[in-house]
Structure formats: C-alpha cells, structure tokens
Amino acid sequence: MSSATLSVPAVSRPAINPWFVAVAVIVPTFMEVLDTTIANVALRYIAGGLSTAVTDSEWVITSYLAANAIILPISGWLAAHLGRRNYFLLSIAVFTLASLLCGLATSLEQIILFRVIQGLAGGGLQPSSQGVLLDSFPPEKQGQAQTLFGLAALLAPIVGPTLGGWLCVKFEHGWRLIFLINIPVGLVALVAAYLLVQDPDYLKKERAELRGRPLNFDYIGLGLLALVMSSWEIMLSKGQEWDWLGDVFWRIQTLMILFVLGLGLLIFREMRIKNPIVNFRVLGERNLAMSCIILSCAYAVLYANSFSLPNMLQVLFGYDAYRAGLVLSPGGITSVSALLVAGFLLGRGVDARWPITVGLVVVAASSYWTSLLNLQISPTQVIWPRMLLTLGLGLIFAPVNVAAFKYTPVHLRGAAVGLLALLRNEGGSVGTSMAQTIEERREQFHLSRVGEFLDPFNPLVNSYLERAQAFFYQRTGDAAGSRQRALQALANLRQQQAASLAYFDVFWMCAVVGAALVFLVLFMKRSVAEKGAHVGAE
C-alpha cells in the first residue's frame, strides 16, 4: 500500500511556533549525541585524573554506548506508557544529574556507573525529539524537520572531539568539564521543554487506552536485549586489545557466543509475541531496511574517520588534541550547508534517493582522497577531504530519514524510530572498533613489508645511514653513538611510514564501504516528501 493511500490520523499541531519547539528539543539531543564522542579524546586525561590505566578508562565509552543501545529500542514503549513529554523531561533531568555525578566522580568505578545511568537516560532523547519535531511541523515541512534533527545528530559527533580536546588542553582537570558543561545546558533545556513541548492528541488517546490495559511488559525480551547489546559493545570495545578470536582467555569467544545465541533467541521471541519490546517486523518494509543499513554504515564511516584522522595527526604530526580537533572542525560548515540543501530539495519534491546517491558518492570520493595523502601534507590538505566527507553525510541524513518512514505505518513508527536510532549508533561503534583494528593490524603488515627493503645491499639505505651518522657525529663527536642514533632514526622512519600506510588503509576501506552503499539505493522505492503526506515518526 502506498503512502498516498495510508489512513493516517490527523496530528494536532501546537499553537506555539514550531521553531521554538524545535530549539527546545534539538539542544538536549545535541548534548546527548555529543557525549558519545566528546570523551574519546579525554581518555588519557581521565585515566591520569583517576589514577588508572588508559585501557581501563575505555570503559567510560563502552558503558555509555552499551546503556544507550539497550534503551533505544524500548524508547517507543516507554514514551507510549509514560507519555512522550513526560519521558522526554525525565530523560533530560536524569541525563543532567548523571552528567554532574560523572564530573564529580573520584574513581573509575563511580564514573562507569554514572555513565551507565547517563546512557540509559540519553537513549530516550533522540527518538523522542525526532517525534516531537515531526509532530510539531506541518506535513509540507517534514523535510525541514528532518534537517533540523540532522543538525543535532550529525554535527554533535563532529564537534565532540574538538570541544573535548580544547577543554582538556586549556583547563586543569578539563576532563571533568566535558561532563559538567552539560549542567547549565540541561537545566535550560529542561525548562524550555517543560514550557514548550506537548503531546499531540493521538498520543494522549493512545496513552489513555494503554492505561485501561494490564501492563504487558516483555521482561524476557529486555533481558535478552541487555545481554545482546552488552556483549556486542564490550566485544567491539575490547576486541583488538584482547586479540579477537585469538584471545587465550576466551573472553571474546564467549562474548561472541552470547551475542549470537542471545540475538537468535531475541529475534525468535520478538517475532512470536504480540507486544515485542523490539519489533523486528518493521524491517519487512524495504525502504526502512535499506535506510537502516545505509545510515548505520554511513555513521560507521563518520566515526572511523573521526577516530583515525585526529589520532593520525597526533601520532604522526605532533598535534595536540585541541589542534587536531581544529583541523576537523571546518567540516561542520559543509555538513550544515548540505543539510540545508537537502531540506530544500526535499521540500521541493525531489526524490530522496537522488541526494542519498550523491551523498554516498561524495563520501566514497572524500575517503579515497584522504587515503592518497602522505606525511608531507599541511593542515589545509586534511581539511578539504574532511569537509567533503561531512558534505556527503549531510546530503544523506535527512533524505534517508524521509525514505525510512515514507511507507512505514503510523502504528509501527515508534518501533521504527527506536530501531533506526539503535542501528545508527551501533554503526558508529562498529566504525570506531574496525578503524582501530585495521590500523593496528595493517601497521604490523606494512612494518614487515617496508622492512623487506631495508638491508645492507640497498644503496639508498647505506646513503641514508652515512648522512645520518655524519649529522649526529658533528653534534656529539661519538662515532659509535652516532651509528646507533642513525640506525634508530631509520627505525623511527620505518615505523612512521608503516603507521601512515595503516591509517590510509582505514580511509581506503571507508571509500569502499561508501561506494558499495550506492547499490543499496537501487532497492529503495520512490520517496518524495509530498505536500500533505505525513512522513513523521514517533
């Protein structure tokens, strides 16, 4: 059945200007998504401040993402039973309180606990804010509503590393500020949402009907979901550190078994019960299924790039966290510009498949461009490919959301939004993990290959060593020591070249992923945000 023939209940628009409502819901959403990346550059500062190992501080990221992933699929159920407005306000309040507790934590165990609470609260902000936006704007402006939501969901992970690096470098105990800055923003957002956000009539009616029914909560499904997502997040976070399937303690293997068995049981159960906690039936709609894959993989590319590029600049070029973030920050300009262009095109009736295709091609081209760089580049030569990447992602975000919900029945949209948000976030987790794994393993590969040509029979090697030894001898007067310094300089150069090639392999893989996603657009149905067609989602 096409969207034109779907019987969609009328949505009562609030008397308040929808742009005010948009600001009220975008700010806390931006704050929540920001916290998925802002702590990435601060891990060694957190480890130093709490006197723990850097590898252990990674649980600050893992715990937040795992908790966030658990709550996202059930956010629709919670919003329906608590009321979307009440759930949204509760999420902001708890998220803000948890941020305060994170900033005041005195041990790693405390901050992990508070990050779990923060992730559980933050998981409800994305789907709720998207539903509020789409119900607040008239049908002909649904493309603009998706663009506004994209501003928060796409800009936040771009701004996060820059802001986190600046706070850590410029302020003593700056790592605490990455959590404490949420306090004033959260309080203002809470007051604004309390005054401006209201539930539409159809949600009030739905909630009233649910009150008259017995509470039928899928506790078994929630337990399986928690098992699956916790196993998945820990496996992604610790996989490379524990050597994946080569783990001699069988931690990764155990997590993988738990994940596969748990996912199988979860799908089996949720497909057989009437009120599932995760409704996998929505993936039977082709556009939604393709949109989930495209958006998840696009976020994997974004997070892989956001992880690898600043690391490369710090490790190989000597940038600090703040300066590496500055190189990445101009990408926000093109992402905003692309979001506005995409919103304009959708409002003009352009088929969403066209900007999605163009965006994916641009993402692939920008990643391939980055893979062609070398160690003699200037900052501007990094900025332009990054800006091109965010341009492509900006063209994708709003259209793929319009395509995802175009043919989804209104009673399934709550489940669809939660599932789409979950897969989008998990795409970021996968991208970060895979970037780390590819970089470390390909560095070993390139180290071995580069070493094949460094032997005493290579005249270029001998020439380099002679010049280096002469250089050090002029400054030290120590012949034996100069020879050792020359050999060490050559070893350092070998290590540097191998590391750079490994980073460029990550970007090359991102280009392959972006190009492969173009073919998925062929399986999507025509998706036009036509005037009067409600493509909103709860």
Shape: globular
Largest sheet: none
Arithmetic mean of pLDDT:
83
What quaternary form is this? single chain
- The helix/strand class is mainly alpha
Give the beta-strand count: 0
Low-pLDDT windows of residues = 1-10, 532-538
Describe the fold and architecture.
By secondary structure, this protein is mainly alpha-helical. It is built from 22 helices and no strands. The longest helix is centred in the last third of the chain and has 39 residues. The N terminus and C terminus are likely disordered.
Write a brief caption for the model.
With 538 residues, this protein is an all-alpha fold.
Helix and strand topology:
Elements: H1 18-34, H2 43-49, H3 54-57, H4 59-71, H5 75-82, H6 84-104, H7 108-122, H8 125-136, H9 142-170, H10 174-180, H11 182-196, H12 201-211, H13 219-238, H14 251-270, H15 286-317, H16 321-328, H17 331-347, H18 353-371, H19 379-406, H20 413-451, H21 459-476, H22 479-517
Helix pairs in contact: 1-8, 1-9, 1-11, 4-7, 4-13, 4-20, 5-6, 6-7, 6-8, 6-10, 6-11, 8-9, 8-20, 9-10, 9-16, 9-17, 9-19, 13-14, 15-16, 15-19, 15-20, 15-22, 17-19, 18-19, 18-22, 20-22, 21-22
Give the key terms.
74% helix; disordered N terminus; mainly alpha; 538 residues
